[in-house]
Amino acid sequence: MDKINSDKPNISLSIANPNPLRTDGIQKLGLVLGIVGLIILFLAWGGVAFPDNGVALYSSLGLIVLGTVIYSRRAYLSLPEGIKNNGVWFKSMSARGVIGWATGILLTAFYVILYWYPFLLGKGADGAANTGLIALFDPLSMLLKGQAASQWFVYGTLYTIAILALGYKYILKYRHNRYQVVRTISVMFFQLGFAFLIPEFIARLNSDLPYNDFKNMWPLNYYAFDEYRIKGFLNGGNLGLFMLVFGVAMIFIISPILTYFYGKRWYCSWVCGCGGLAETAGDSYRHLSSKKVSAWKLERWSIHLVTVLSVLMTLGVINTYLSNNPDQSIFTRSQFTWGLAIFIGVLMA
């Protein structure tokens, strides 16, 4: 009996959660801090005016990150290395419970409002000042690019915070696997730098250039060949020309070469923001995905379908750009934007 007991890991209950199926006091503290941060965002969305939007925003984002860090460290660092999926089928959030469904409905509603009804987030129309949630992000937007925030700046900021905070959680969970750690650091780096900070800094230097996420390429970047972007790049001097050439090179040179040597994972798992969010925020829900062969076949068909539709619609919009009579071209700009935005930007992504 003594020999058996001596082989067991010596984990002190003072530093380890005694019941991994339940959240202990420290984890609950982390959850409370994160929820308080989210409440600040919801209050702003509801029209509550804060004395200082900058303080309120930085407090909100800071509490969300701090709460995630506290929860994650308690959940993983207090136990031996190795994947911990304890209790995922017993928690409402990760087992299709009420909290999970409510979160899914809320996120879907947020996306619908973001794309089609930004005024409900407080977006000022015709030069009017922002209000509500978007106004809360004005101080950070002014700091980075010297302009008031848009709904896309709000989305980009929250997206980046999610990948950074939950990426840290992912690193702690898979800290025994060097590949996973390095890969996660990579997607965090590309999201923060190439997708968020660099485009905002460029907007500060030249506000006439189209917003450009350097790591986002066609067809995921379904608006890559939209008329206003092509004209903006061509009229943007050397920097605009570089951005246009780099975007084309990503499609026809960089991506094919890297895909030939490393497969599609070089982009989807190491660079892409969609893949980054799926791996970090989506890690807690990985067990809910279908493991059937039919699901795998459906995924393959959907990939090819998206590629075919993207090629056809992109050729159509290029025809629109080159046509002397755009109204008679294959696709108008609005048809292209709505078609791909709904199919790829909303349904697929």
Question: Which SSEs are present, and which pair or pack?
Answer:
Layout: H1 2-6, H2 25-45, H3 53-76, H4 98-116, H5 132-136, H6 138-145, H7 151-173, H8 178-205, H9 227-234, H10 237-262, H11 265-268, H12 273-280, H13 293-322, H14 333-348
Helix pairs in contact: 2-3, 3-7, 7-8, 7-12, 8-12, 9-10, 13-14
In short:
Helices cover 64% and strands 0% of the residues.
Biggest β-sheet strands, sense, barrel: none
Number of helices: 14
| Rg over CA atoms | 23 Å
Report the strand count.
Answer: 0
Helix fraction, binned, reads: 55-70%
Mean pLDDT: 84
* H/E element order: HHHHHHHHHHHHHH
Distance between the first and last residues' Cα: 55 Å
Salient structural properties:
14 helices, 349 residues, mainly alpha
Descriptive overview:
- By secondary structure, the chain is an all-alpha fold.
- Helix content is 64%, strand content 0%.
- The chain is built from 14 helices and no strands.
- The protein has helices spanning 2-6, 25-45, 53-76, 98-116, 132-136, 138-145, 151-173, 178-205, 227-234, 237-262, 265-268, 273-280, 293-322, 333-348.
- It is globular.
- The relative contact order is 0.08.
- Mean pLDDT is 84; it is low at 1-18.
